[in-house]
Design goal:
351 residues; alpha/beta; seven-stranded parallel beta sheet; six-stranded mixed beta sheet; 11 helices; globular
Length: 351
């Protein structure tokens, strides 16, 4: 039986600070079942918008917690976001996880930065992990960040090689600096491979509306628009909303490129896997696991922990058998990867 505890915290809506999230369920745990015993070490993750079950970013974080639970014999706890939650809700969630003795406590996504800054100061003996953000630092904060632009560059190379129309699409969930890194790398990879190619780029929502990470219908509609405009390869960096883009693209018989996890292998996307050419992977699983292990080893990670192509922290998945048949595409991707690692290619972080 799995020992991971899920905590569904109740949020208080605040229009000024709200981030819309789609919780994936889970029963609220009683204090007795979710509290850590003095003899059992525990670690916790607080999910980003979309929650566990997004087939992408959050699920990758969960995989790291699950691996730690198995390999390190610890107890794991999870906390879901709530719809229309305020910054205070995030503070409350992280405080609850830390108070129960979890160490480390990991915020999945840049939206947790302000809350971690507040809570980390109150629990100096607890290590806090912050994924995808370096704006908040502290002696007990580990900033787990990735060179998303590098993996996206490789996706751009692959898209340009796979495209027959010369038109490809990029869909970002919300127009924030993090997602612009995906866009910048992808567009640069496409153009460096085929200067005559056309890249259609679109965002689903603008801050402070973060539903672009949570609603598949938005991703589906955006992908249909790009497909109608001639795109035959579509890359979406949009969390749960990206599954809608994959669905629309696959149903049109065109190539989709996944993100964060190897989406070809995601059970929830099995129906569309044959048309998932590849995925830009972020090794969030290892980042979460490594942080938990560092705490268990008594040498907790702190400061910026960066994962790039040179450490296989980002990359391009090759699970689809059709991808493996594309010799020219693979050669171009491998050359681009080598050139980025050798610093012959500098990938932009903004469009």
């Amino acid at each position: 039986m799995r020992r991971i505890t899920r905590i569904a915290t109740v949020g208080v809506a605040s229009a000024a600070l709200a981030l819309t999230a789609t919780a994936c369920g889970g029963k609220k745990s009683s204090d007795s079942s979710s509290s850590s015993s003095s003899s059992e070490k525990s670690a916790a993750i607080a999910y980003d918008i979309g929650g566990r079950g997004d087939q992408s970013f959050n699920d990758a974080a969960f995989a790291g917690l699950e691996k730690a639970e198995k390999d390190l014999k610890i107890k794991g706890a999870e906390a879901e976001p709530t719809e229309g939650e305020s910054e205070a809700d995030k503070v409350q969630r992280l405080t609850e996880l830390a108070r129960k003795g979890n160490n480390p406590v990991i915020g999945v996504g840049f939206a947790y930065a302000p809350a971690i800054k507040k809570v980390a100061e109150k629990f100096p003996k607890t290590t806090f992990g912050l994924i995808d953000d370096t704006s908040v630092t502290g002696p007990n904060i580990a900033n787990l960040v990735f060179n998303e632009e590098q993996g996206s560059y490789l996706a751009g190379v692959a898209a340009a090689k796979a495209s027959k129309t010369g038109t490809v699409g990029f869909i970002g969930g919300v127009e924030v600096p993090l997602i612009k890194k995906f866009q910048a790398g992808f567009e640069q990879g496409v153009k460096d491979t085929n200067p005559n190619a056309k890249v259609l780029s679109a965002y689903l929502t603008q801050p402070p509306d973060f539903t672009g990470f949570a609603k598949p219908d938005l991703g589906k509609a955006a992908a249909k628009g790009q497909l109608d405009a001639g795109a035959d390869v579509v890359y979406a960096a949009a969390g749960l909303a990206g599954s809608g883009a994959i669905e629309a693209t696959a149903n049109a018989g065109k190539w989709a490129i996944g993100v964060d996890s190897d989406q070809y292998n995601q059970a929830g996307l099995a129906k569309y896997k044959d048309k998932i050419l590849t995925s830009v992977t972020k090794d969030v699983q290892s980042a979460v696991y490594n942080l938990i292990k560092s705490v268990e080893d008594g040498k907790p990670q702190t400061g910026e922990i960066r994962y790039g192509l040179d450490k296989n922290g980002v990359g391009l998945a090759d699970s689809n058998p059709e991808y493996k048949k594309m010799a020219e595409l693979i050669a171009a991707v491998e050359k681009a990867k080598a050139d980025i690692i050798a610093k012959k290619i500098t990938v932009k972080t903004a469009p």
